[in-house]
Write a structure and sequence with these properties.
The complex is a heterodimer of chains A (208) and B (259). By secondary structure, chain A is α/β, with parallel strands linked by helices. Chain A is built from 6 helices and 14 strands. The longest helix of chain A has 13 residues. Chain B is α/β, with parallel strands linked by helices and 259 residues long. Chain B has an 8-stranded parallel β-barrel, surrounded by 7 helices. Chain B is globular. Classes of the chains: A alpha/beta (208), B alpha/beta (259).
């Protein structure tokens, strides 16, 4: 069964609806045991990493997500789900799950024309091949809403990049059975839906 | 590079699509769910619903429309109109909206913006401002005043000051709607849009007055808007969303063309 983790960070129902649209039945749950028992897991989220981490810890979901990752089953992180997978975020100087080595930084621009949060449609530049990206083309646009971006330490974890102002940030990352997007596939029209459909059939192996 | 967003605005009254000229004389022009789906397929970047239903018993109608639209479109979708509390906002999110727009109730009780930002996140909390032109004075240094109740009630609040206050209170985006330009199709209020876009560090959505793709070009470049709201231009079939985007792209505005 596919579980979407609900920890009160954003609209999980829109992720569920997009999954349904591509023929994928998904249950919403905040129960760590159900999360661990899932066949595949979506870890979504928007908003503050500080309150998100606090809620995950309070519910025991932080340990459940880490254990799920270690089990080798397919795990998809979306937006805050990507940021929290890192070791640390500048947002509130918070320790995160540490699934991927690296930190999250806040967008800082000297040019005030560039707005933060980074909200809107932006291009994905593919830098590595991955099974979940099989039906995504270089230059496809996706919908972003975020103020922080991840900097993975190991380059092999970076699958896609996006430019905002003079910052080029990692917008897709992956490690083993973990795959994550900074953008919202559930709000990104056709390319986003197609990415979700591909995730639904992914076996968790990172090689194409 | 970030694309400029083209956002279609649907005024919904009693579950039907309506369009007003200068906020009065609204007339019904069709089924909002069908329109939303049509625009989505044609490359729309984002959708906004304004519920202009007056009666509270009609509240469930908009929730039903929102739910039906959310099953059809997979782009950001925000809803405004009549949101007075975090509970109202949550009802809309649960029905399928992505963001909520607060307007009149936020002017009357600014803490509503902060409450929504804390509960739904700033990125889901949009402050929509209805603004009219006034003489510059000590009370209105920007030369613009905030109005509420669909443009009927002037509030003696300077528009630029309210925009900055809205950002400080936690709004994640601003809709700058010119009452003077609304429904005229003579173009956006460029000076107002630019003034606010340059003053705040959150995205600004220009609203009111779009009648020709030239108007979008103007407000997205000279007006410094991050996004442009359109309504009549597309509702009556005069322009297609995809045509407007192609036209803007041909003139050097970065828009999303693959969909």
């Amino acid at each position: 069964m596919l579980i979407i983790i609900d920890y009160d960070a954003g609209n999980v129902r829109s992720v569920q609806r997009a999954c349904q649209h591509v023929g994928l039945q998904a249950e919403i749950s905040s129960d760590p045991e159900l999360v661990l028992a899932a066949d595949r897991l979506i870890f979504p989220g928007v908003g503050s990493a500080i309150s998100a981490m606090d809620r995950l810890r309070a519910e025991g979901l932080d340990e459940a997500i880490i254990s799920f990752y270690k089990s080798g089953k397919p795990l998809l992180g979306i937006c805050l789900g990507l940021e929290i997978a890192m070791e640390f975020t500048e947002e509130g100087e918070k320790d995160c799950l540490g699934i991927l080595p690296g930190v999250c930084k806040r967008f800082e621009f000297s040019d005030r024309v560039l707005k933060v949060p980074h909200i809107g449609w932006n291009e994905l530049k593919l830098v590595a091949r991955h099974p979940v990206l099989a039906n995504v083309s270089d230059g496809d646009e996706f919908y972003f809403v975020h103020s922080y971006y991840a900097k993975p330490i190991h380059e092999e974890h970076i699958l896609g990049m996006t430019d905002y102002g003079d910052i080029t940030f990692c917008s897709v990352m992956g490690s083993n059975n973990f795959f994550a997007t900074q953008f919202h596939p559930e709000k990104s029209g056709k390319p986003g839906l197609s990415l979700l459909a591909t995730f639904a059939t992914w076996d968790g192996q990172p090689e194409c | 590079m970030l694309s400029k967003r083209i956002i279609a605005c649907l005024d919904v009254r009693d579950g039907k699509l309506a369009k007003s000229v200068k906020f009065v004389n609204t007339r019904d022009i069709g089924d909002p769910v069908a329109k939303a789906a049509e625009y989505y397929r044609d490359g729309l970047d984002e959708l906004v619903f304004y519920d202009i239903t007056a009666s509270s018993e009609a509240r469930n109608i908009i929730l039903d429309v929102v739910a039906r639209v959310a099953e059809q479109i997979y782009i950001p979708f925000s809803v405004g109109g009549g949101i007075r509390s975090v509970e109202d906002a949550h009802q809309l999110l649960w029905s399928g909206a992505e963001k909520i727009n607060v307007n009149t109730a936020a002017v009357q009780r600014p803490a509503l913006i902060t409450e929504c930002a804390h509960s739904l996140g700033s990125q889901n909390t949009v402050l929509s401002m209805d603004i009219r032109r006034v003489d510059e004075s000590r009370d209105f240094p920007s030369g613009y005043e905030v109005v509420i109740n669909g443009g009927r009630t002037p509030m003696k609040i300077d528009a630029l000051q309210w925009a900055l206050q809205g950002e400080a209170l936690g709004a994640g985006e601003l809709v700058v709607n010119s009452i003077d330009a609304d429904g005229t199709r003579d173009g956006y209020e460029i000076r107002l849009t630019r003034m606010i876009a340059e003053a705040v560090s959150i995205p600004v959505i220009a609203s009111g007055g779009a009648g020709h793709p030239e108007h979008l070009l103007e407000v997205l470049t000279e007006g410094r808007a991050d996004a442009a709201l359109i309504a009549s231009m597309v509702h009556f079939g005069e322009y297609k969303v995809s045509e407007i985007k192609q036209w803007l792209n041909d003139r050097g505005v970065k828009v999303r063309l693959r969909y």
